[in-house]
């Protein structure tokens, strides 16, 4: 876990594509896309079917590692409106136990906006904590400090003839976008115009590595 300061608050960035807020005891995750594989299977495209269980394994591990008392999921937690209903029994029971034990907040994203019911926790459009707005998609015109997801940012580099792609945070003075945590999520280049427009001037890709945070200006 690597220290990351944002909007006057101290966070810890995790290489596994999550953010921990020690003062709140909260683990922030984004774009889990539970049941993405089963959604594709309905249309004849078969992907490894255990993506939800693998994503939940990762969350459970991060909760244990950080000692989090809360999980705030910043939207697109399910790949589609019927995703929660397609969870297999074992994964549903594990998720229900976790949401019952923790202060779990589901922030609604564009993929899960029509979901009738989430497995436990509280469902909200957005939240404001200690002056920081938590929402799914960054709002470029909102001057408030904001943490969001939606874009699945990845940093792509060419190093010594090799192409390297890694999930990353993207931040500026008032915006912080989390990488996607879901097991089957792809990514958008961190320097893409849509991300830079959402984040505004001073956009940087932030990559937690070992004991430090690498910063790459996005121009």
UniProtKB/TrEMBL annotation:
Q: Where is each Calcineurin-like phosphoesterase domain found?
A: 27-116
One Pfam annotation reads Metallophos
Domain of life, per the record? Bacteria
Q: Which InterPro entries match?
A: Calcineurin-like_PHP (IPR004843), Metallo-depent_PP-like (IPR029052), PdeM-like (IPR026336), Pesterase_MJ0037-like (IPR024173)
Alphabetized GO MF terms = hydrolase activity
The protein's name is: Putative phosphoesterase
Q: What is the lineage of its organism?
A: Bacteria, Pseudomonadati, Pseudomonadota, Alphaproteobacteria, Sphingomonadales
């Amino acid at each position: 876990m690597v220290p990351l300061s944002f909007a006057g608050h101290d966070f810890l960035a995790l290489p596994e594509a999550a953010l921990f807020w020690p003062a709140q005891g909260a683990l922030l995750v984004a774009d889990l896309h539970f049941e993405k594989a089963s959604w594709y299977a309905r249309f004849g495209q078969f992907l490894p079917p255990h993506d939800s269980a693998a994503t939940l394994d990762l969350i459970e591990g991060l909760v244990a590692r950080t000692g989090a008392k809360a999980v705030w999921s910043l939207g697109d937690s399910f790949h589609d409106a019927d995703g929660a209903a397609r969870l297999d029994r074992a994964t549903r029971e594990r998720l229900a136990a976790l949401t019952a034990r923790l202060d779990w907040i589901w922030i609604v994203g564009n993929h899960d906006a029509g979901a009738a019911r989430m497995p436990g926790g509280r469902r909200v459009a957005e939240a404001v904590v200690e002056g920081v707005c938590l929402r799914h998609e960054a709002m470029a015109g909102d001057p408030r400090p904001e943490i969001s997801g939606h874009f699945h940012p990845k940093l792509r580099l060419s190093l010594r003839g090799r192409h390297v792609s890694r999930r990353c945070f993207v931040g500026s003075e008032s915006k912080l976008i989390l990488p996607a945590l879901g097991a089957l999520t792809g990514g958008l280049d961190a320097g893409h115009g849509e991300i830079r427009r959402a984040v505004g001037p001073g956009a940087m890709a932030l990559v937690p590595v070992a004991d430090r945070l690498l910063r790459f200006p996005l121009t």
